[in-house]
Amino acid sequence: LEAEDDATVRELVAPLHYADIADLIETLGSEDRARFVRAVKSVFNAEILPELDDAVRAEVIEELGFEDFAACLREVESDDAVYLAGQIEDEDERATVLAKLPAELRAVIEQALALPEFSAGRLMQRELVAVPSYWTVGETIDYLRSGARLPDEFYQIFIVDPRHRPVGNVRLSALLRARRPVRLREIMDPKTAEIPITMDQEEVAFLFRQQNLLSAPVVDASGRLVGRVTVDDVVDVIDEEAEDDMFRLAGLSEGDLFSAVVDTVKSRFTWLLLNLGTAVLASLVIGLFESTLEAVVALAVLMPIVASMGGNAGTQTLTIAVRALATKELTAANATRIVGKEVAIGLINGLVFAVLTGAVSWVWFGNPAIGVVIGAAMIINMVAAGLAGIAIPLVLDRLKVDPAVSSGVFLTTVTDVVGFFAFLGLAAVFIL
Amino acid sequence: LEAEDDATVRELVAPLHYADIADLIETLGSEDRARFVRAVKSVFNAEILPELDDAVRAEVIEELGFEDFAACLREVESDDAVYLAGQIEDEDERATVLAKLPAELRAVIEQALALPEFSAGRLMQRELVAVPSYWTVGETIDYLRSGARLPDEFYQIFIVDPRHRPVGNVRLSALLRARRPVRLREIMDPKTAEIPITMDQEEVAFLFRQQNLLSAPVVDASGRLVGRVTVDDVVDVIDEEAEDDMFRLAGLSEGDLFSAVVDTVKSRFTWLLLNLGTAVLASLVIGLFESTLEAVVALAVLMPIVASMGGNAGTQTLTIAVRALATKELTAANATRIVGKEVAIGLINGLVFAVLTGAVSWVWFGNPAIGVVIGAAMIINMVAAGLAGIAIPLVLDRLKVDPAVSSGVFLTTVTDVVGFFAFLGLAAVFIL
After folding, report:
1. What b/e string do you get for B388-423 counting C-beta neighbours within 10 Å, with b at 16 or more?
2. CB within 8 A of B293, min separation 6: which ones?
3. Residue B230, H or E segment
4. Cα A116 to Cα A110, A207, A237, B249, B319, distances in angstroms
5. Residues of A in contact with B303 (CB under 8 A)
6. What CA–CA distance (Å, rounded) separates B218 from B196?
7. What are the CA-CA distances from residue A401 to residues A186, A394, B108 (Å)?
8. By the CB < 8 Å criterion, does B158 face chain A?
9. DSSP secondary structure letter of residue B3
10. Is residue B303 part of a domain?
């Protein structure tokens, strides 16, 4: 199908939802993707762009060219336009695109891009409905019907004071149920969560999730209402937040499914290099006991078991801790209790697995001393794993370092070093 | 503060948002928690319950007792009542609570609980606004104002045909902007995504995220409108979905931060036991080469490096694959291409780290043969890791097994076995 016939492609694509077209573009290979974009260029739906994976979008934008891309920016809502323009990393290219936009939209985009990335200001839409609290329901509905410049879709009406500061909000369902002469101040909810324009998007997501918000007002430094954040944008942030932690724990900077091979190799390299460092450190520890190993080669056979069990038990604790820090369930208030709990779990699991591996090793090598040594090392390493698994992310978080990014390397270092040292060290003392 | 003075506690808690009180309850220790619930029992806000972690909620419900818990179920919305009632696992206890409810609510809950867990039917609210398409905007607003039994909050008006099947929906913002004589069919969006009552909640979340929905109609087997799913419930599902995958990759059945030590030990035990199996398997492979190790003890020192690097590289690929399967970015259509890409990445990384580790090992032990052997083993294991990291989740997914739960064990088995076998095997052939 993709071979030649552009008209057929356009016909096939026409009835699809823009999100489905985005998914379709993502599944295509690079060449097919370019050919597809060329085919549908004339009928390209701007809404497709925000839905695409970063690497794929960059290819599509390149294929569209500056002119068509600028046209797309004009079509989408202001928050999406800001997001898309922010994706162009080359300053000159971005200037070229912005120059093709109407002055007003250009100013909005430039202002927003001046704000820190991942802030509420980047996420917000400027289009909103704000009215004073002394208006009646009737006046408000007439205003909405007047076709004044309003957003395409809105979920709430923001109530502002004379200085344009938000004082409350009225849900549309409440507005529709009230009679025309009722004043807005009577039906408004005065407890509006305000979002400072510089608030980090993860904080915004936390607030939305915690309070089940649909949209919330964004205010500038002087408290004036300048925009609104809506739940559909927050859904994307929430989704990315857990995903990011998951990726970082595995040493990935971001989802790279659609990136080119070279970019992927580069992005994964650093983590692997760090792990090589850890592995070499573990080898150095083993090297201390070369003579012990020479004497009892069974130790070399068994030694990965202790390190591997510690690593796995530690990763369980670490994953819980990283996620709990992200969702603010783990705080200074309960940290001590959770640390105690994880150490207790490490001790119990250590005892259970000490008996198991000790028995297996005894039978395997017919030497009870080896069984006792591996059991004791298992207990030590499981307790160390539990302690490190919870303490490392807590300390990193206190030092304002993202625990998801770096905890894993530290943890493996601890469980490898403690595991090999305890096992081989105990063996050197008690078996030789 | 918590010592005695219940009145003060109530006073301090009174101005807080229910979500904040829920967070507060979570951070308390078990004893303080019980004391806190007893203190605020008389003024307990039912909205707190859905916000709590499962283990914490069970404690709070126990402390509240059947009578007060039943009162809470009457206060919350029907979807929350279904969810809360579903959390009581003991059938008799649940029957006792349900018996205290009005017949209508009891019927709703019992019907919903008969549906599979994690289905749209469990997630939906029964309260909704549904009107025929021939109504005008004016009639609709008058109906809403009439105070007919309507949900507390609604985001859309569902348009139904005479057999109560959904044919479209009208956004409240569109309703508010239209003039009174306009018929709903003129402003309705006919492309409504319908959700079958048995649809899995992850599918529901995918649909909401893909199409940026606020609420969607739920239909029964005959296509009749029976409820609606709203975005605030879906936000929780989306949040849990990525979190679940993250936890499962680490061998956790669920977040157990607030569980008792014994429960946590039990839930983590199975995974650790599986990993012990893998570790023993790796040891058996090493055992094959005891004589080689006895001859060249340097091999024992270096051998964890190859296995560990393969494990880490494989985990990177695995994490990407598991997440991409969950978000439907990795499909049959692009699987072959992605497998090829991951193998290529494994090969490139393998070459780079082969040179690095080879050089380090040569210098360390002054033996070029060891350097060559470890380098060759590194390339073999990195390619195997890339291939296994993508192929294992793909195969499990094809077999309808959740790849997040079980991929990790298989992957470690592959990278350990291949790593040790390649390194020691090559050494046995070329160094001895």
Report:
1. bbbbbbbebbeeeebbbbbbbbbbbbbbbbbbbbbb
2. A293, A297, A300, A301, B286, B299, B300, B424
3. strand B225-230
4. 12, 19, 16, 33, 29
5. 300, 304
6. 6
7. 46, 10, 48
8. no
9. T
10. yes
Residue of A20, A27, A265 lying closest to B331 (CB–CB):
A27
Residues in chain A: 432
Q: Residue A140 in contact with residue A131, Cβ under 8 Å?
A: yes
Residue among A429, A418, A245 at smallest CA distance from A325:
A245
What pLDDT is recorded for position B43?
78
Two tokens, residue A4: 């030649």
- Which residues of chain A does B344 touch, with a Cβ-Cβ cutoff of 8 Å? 261
A415 and A318 share a domain? Answer: yes
Most confident of A96-105, A314-323, B81-90, B94-103: A314-323
Tens of pLDDT along B369-409? 999 999 999 999 999 999 999 999 999 999 988 888 888 88
- Residue A165 neighbours by CB distance under 10 Å: 15
Query: Does the distance separating the beta carbons of A171 and B153 come in below 8 Å?
Result: yes
Instruction: Give the gap in angstroms from C-alpha A111 to the nearest C-alpha of chain B.
Output: 26
Q: How far apart are the first and last CA of chain B?
A: 73
Amino acid at A205: A
Kindly state the tokens that stand for B100. Answer: 């205290």
Specify burial of residue A191 (Cβ count, 10 A radius: 0-12, 13-18, 19+).
Answer: exposed
User: Does B257 contact A329 at a Cβ distance shorter than 8 Å?
Assistant: yes
Digit-coded pLDDT (tens) for A17-53: 888 888 888 878 777 888 888 888 777 888 888 888 8
Nearest to A118 by CA among A240, A226, A224, A242: A240
Which distant-in-sequence residues (6+ apart) come within 8 Å of A284 by Cβ? none
Q: How many domains does the structure of chain B reveal?
A: 3
Strands B130-132 and B156-160, sheet pairing? parallel
Pick the residue from chain A with its C-alpha nearest to B252: A316
Q: Is residue A198 part of a domain?
A: yes
- On whether residue B366 sits in a domain, the answer given is yes
Residue of A nearest to B279 (CA): A305
Task: Supply the CATH number for residue A47's domain.
Answer: 1.25.60.10
- DSSP state, residue B41: G
Q: Is residue A121 part of a domain?
A: no
Range of the structural domain that residue B50 is part of: 6-114
Under DSSP, the state recorded for A178 is S
Closest to A411 in 3D by CA, of A341, A342, A330: A342
Taking the C-alpha atoms of residue B423 and residue B315, their distance in angstroms, rounded to an integer, is 20
Which of the residue ranges A365-369, B44-48, B308-312 would you say has the lowest mean pLDDT?
Answer: B44-48
Between A54 and A340, where is the model more confident? A340
**Model confidence at A409, in pLDDT bands (50, 70, 90)?**
confident
Q: pLDDT, tens digit, for every residue of B8-42?
A: 777 777 778 888 888 888 877 777 888 888 888 77
φ, ψ for residue A63, nearest 5 deg: -70, -35
Across the A:B interface, residue pairs with CB atoms under 8 Å apart total 319
Cβ–Cβ < 8 Å for A348, B261: yes
Instruction: Note whether B89 and B142 are same-domain residues.
Output: no
A268-292, pLDDT tens digit by residue?
A: 888 899 999 999 999 999 999 999 9
Query: Residue B413 is part of a domain; what is its CATH number?
Result: 1.10.357.20
Residue A182 and residue A322 in one domain: no
Residue whose pair of structure tokens reads 């739960």 in the numeric block? B405
Shared-domain flag, residues A351 and A386: yes
In a 13 Å sphere around the CA of B78, the CA atoms on its Cβ side amount to 27
| Strands of the A225-230 sheet, one edge to the other | A195-196, A215-219, A225-230
User: So what's the pLDDT on residue A214?
Assistant: 84
Does residue B85 sit in the same domain as residue B147? Answer: no
CB within 8 Å: B29 and A334: yes
